[in-house]
Write a structure and sequence with these properties.
Elements: E1 8-15, E2 23-29, E3 36-45, H1 48-57, E4 65-66, E5 71-78, E6 90-93, H2 118-121, E7 126-134, E8 137-142, E9 151-155, E10 159-161, H3 168-171, H4 177-189, E11 196-200, H5 204-215, E12 220-224, H6 231-237, E13 241-243, H7 252-259, E14 266-269, H8 274-282, E15 290-293, H9 307-310, E16 314-317, H10 325-337, E17 347-352, H11 356-365, E18 370-374
Parallel strand pairs: 4-8, 11-12, 11-14, 12-13, 14-15, 15-16, 17-18
Antiparallel strand pairs: 1-2, 1-4, 2-7, 3-5, 3-9, 3-18, 5-6, 6-10, 7-8
Helix pairs in contact: 4-5
């Protein structure tokens, strides 16, 4: 392409500081260096983790930054040493890398990677190295991706090549939320046929967890949320029972225990709320119950009474659904193309990049499951 090897000037939504609206800016995107890929972003979802960094984490060292980590696009150019990608390839940027060489990548028990930004910079949610500048200063690349920009530069270990006929404005959701919730059920929890499950929080991640429980063969799936308007949507993904904690004068864990003769086999917390994490654990049956933390947060401690674990329950966490990113995302795209998993049903809004603040406000109010931002043609 004509832009290969040159600095590209393009539009991006820049978060200059925490707890403030994003600003549309012209940024400079440097050419890819050794092992890097420059990507033209076509579409991106707006995920709660973007909002978490902006409104909850609020670590000023993580700004200014370009948010967005649930995107899909086309390779514009590649840096030296890149052999598996070429201009024109359809790709999904990955916030969780897979170098294939570290002890974590070589271990089948985990999807962690020593080369990921999260290994050393989870507090600011960005590697200090960036290919972005604006107004003469560096702009961080949020979670190593920054898909609220027309172009981004990412190391090849954090990019998945996908099939040419994949619709980028749908499969972009597999870059985070849907893979996270779905995998938390089928991989991390290991939901079994005939089991009873409870999913706490019915945003995109929670609904994807419901879908995972359904595909794994669960017999009953309790959908738990204070927003009853989402229950009909949850039914589409496989939920069988619906609970609003505010409708009861006792803890919802007690309600679930009474309804299931002791508790559910698997529970998944998809909110990122430490109190809900405890409730999800307490909702599990003793002896073999498994509770999984899925919602992202790093600002509060969580706790539980030791007897919850002494009695035989398991409490575990899940990042990106336990999927090894580069290996798994292309397969998930194919699963969508063949109808095994849903994506279209998560999308409630579509907007332009210039409307990103409107999309963020919709996410804050709970009126949106997933909004797709059309970044470029």
């Amino acid at each position: 392409m004509a832009t290969a090897g040159k600095v590209i000037k393009c539009r991006a939504a820049v978060a200059w500081e925490p707890n403030a609206p994003l600003m549309m800016e012209e940024i400079e995107v440097a050419p890819p260096q050794e092992g890097e890929i420059r990507i033209k972003v076509v579409a991106t979802g707006v995920c709660h983790t973007d909002l978490y960094h902006l409104f909850e984490g609020k670590d000023k060292r993580g700004f200014p930054t370009v948010l967005g980590h649930e995107g899909a696009g086309v390779v514009e150019s590649v840096g030296p040493g890149v052999t598996d990608f070429k201009p024109g390839d359809k790709v999904i940027p990955l916030f969780l890398s897979q170098c294939g060489e570290c002890k974590f990548c070589k271990c089948p028990k985990t999807n962690m990677c020593d080369c990921s930004w999260s290994s050393n910079y989870h507090d600011i949610m960005s590697d200090p190295t960036t290919r972005f500048t604006c107004r003469g200063q560096p702009i961080l690349q949020f979670m190593g991706t920054s898909t609220f920009s027309e172009y981004t530069v990412i190391n090849q270990i954090a990019v998945a090549k996908i099939v040419d006929d994949a619709p980028l404005d749908r499969v972009c959701l597999l870059g985070c939320g849907i893979a996270t919730g779905y995998g938390a059920a089928v991989n991390t929890a290991g939901v079994t046929p005939g089991s009873v499950c409870a999913v706490f929080g019915l945003g995109a991640v929670g609904l994807a967890a419901v879908m995972g429980c359904k595909n794994a063969g669960a017999s009953h799936i309790f959908a738990v949320d204070i927003n009853e308007q989402i229950f009909e949507k949850a039914k589409i993904f496989g939920a069988t029972d619906f609970l609003n904690p505010k409708a009861y004068n006792k803890p919802i864990s007690e309600v679930l225990s009474e309804m299931t003769s002791g508790g559910v086999d698997f529970s998944l917390e998809c909110v990122g709320n430490t109190e809900v994490m405890r409730t999800a654990l307490e909702s599990c049956i003793k002896g073999w119950g498994v509770s999984v933390l899925v919602g992202w947060t790093d600002v509060k401690d969580f706790s539980a009474k030791p007897i919850q674990l002494i009695s035989g329950k398991t409490w575990k966490g899940s990042l990106f659904g336990g999927f090894k990113s580069k290996d798994s995302v292309p397969n998930l795209v194919c699963d969508y193309m063949t109808g095994k998993i849903k994506l279209d049903e998560f999308i409630t809004h579509k907007m332009s990049l210039e409307q990103v603040n409107d999309a963020i406000n919709l996410m804050k109010t709970g009126d949106c499951i997933r909004c797709i931002l059309n970044i470029s043609k």
